[in-house]
């Protein structure tokens, strides 16, 4: 779930950056997509999303183990 949330955040950030690039640099939509999203940022963004998810899970587990945060409430399914 953490990876999905980080990837969605990355996509939203790249979309806003592409819109800004289109209007500020007066580019076409295709040019702003190619210049601001594809080459430089997709791979790096996915790597950062993976690392943030991985580190976030590790930190959360350690905080739970140290009793600094509570365990998540797990709802039981009705049988």
TrEMBL record:
GO molecular function: biotin transmembrane transporter activity
GO cellular component, one term: plasma membrane
Record field: transmembrane: 7-25, 37-59
Alphabetical keyword list: Membrane, Transmembrane, Transmembrane helix
Family: Belongs to the BioY family.
Protein name: Substrate-specific component BioY of biotin ECF transporter
Organism lineage: Bacteria, Bacillati, Bacillota, Bacilli, Bacillales
């Amino acid at each position: 779930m953490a990876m999905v949330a980080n990837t969605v955040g990355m996509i939203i950030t790249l979309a806003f950056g592409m819109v800004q690039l289109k209007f500020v640099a007066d580019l076409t939509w295709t040019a702003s997509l190619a210049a601001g999203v594809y080459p430089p940022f997709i791979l790096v963004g996915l790597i950062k999303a993976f690392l943030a998810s991985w580190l976030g899970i590790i930190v959360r587990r350690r905080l739970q183990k140290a009793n600094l945060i509570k365990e998540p409430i797990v709802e039981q399914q009705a049988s």
